[in-house]
Amino acid sequence: MMKGQVMSSRTAYAKLLGLILFAMVLMGAMPARAQGVDQGFVPGIQDLPLMNGLKSANSEPLIFDSPEGRIVVSPVSGTTTRRQVLEFYRRILPQLGWQVFKETSFRREGELLKLEFSAAQGGVLPLRFSLSPARKFTH
Fold first, then answer.
1. Contacts of 24 (CB under 8 A, 6+ apart)
2. 42, 68, 114, 121: which sits with the fewest CB atoms below 10 Å from its CB?
3. What is the mean pLDDT of residues 119-132?
4. Same domain, yes or no, for 53 and 106?
5. What is the structure's pLDDT at 85?
6. H-helix or E-strand containing 20?
């Protein structure tokens, strides 16, 4: 094998390795999409997927850390129905360690997540995600 061929092979190998690493970085930067999840999360609750069709409301979430745990109130809204939202979160949340507690409430590791619905206005459903320490609601 000649010196020029060795350099060409090394250059080709380096380019191929670079492409593979670039692809791996891209795949890591783009999280897999669960069915019905719009690449975002509920504002203020980093590990809670935001359902397609829902978006953050005009106001910022209320976030408070207390000695008993975190408290988050995050308003969202969307052109969906209460039934669709409940079906989505009843399917997704158990995969994330949440257990159904009541019709619109879920529990996980000492926290309680409540989905609080308001009446739809003009086809838009307002919804508030409330996260708080579970102990407060179990006594």
1. none
2. 121
3. 95
4. yes
5. 97
6. helix 3-29
Q: Kindly report the number of other CB atoms within 10 A of residue 101's CB atom.
A: 16
Residue 94 CA, distance from chain mean position: 13
- Are 49 and 83 in the same domain? yes
For 100, counting Cβ atoms within 10 Å of its Cβ (0-12 exposed, 13-18 middle, 19+ buried), the class is middle
Answer yes or no: do 47 and 19 share one domain.
Answer: no
- What range defines the domain where residue 20 resides? 1-30
d(CA 105, CA 113): 6
pLDDT at 23: 47
The set of residues, in sequence order, having a beta carbon less than 8 Å from that of 124 and lying 6+ positions away, is: 77, 78, 79
CB neighbour list of residue 39: distance below 8 Å, 6 or more residues apart: 31, 33
CA-based torsion, 95, 99, 102, 105: positive or negative? negative
DSSP structure string for 36-50: TEEEEE-TT-TTSEE
pTM confidence score: 0.69
List the one residue out of 109, 108, 104 whose CA is nearest residue 129.
104
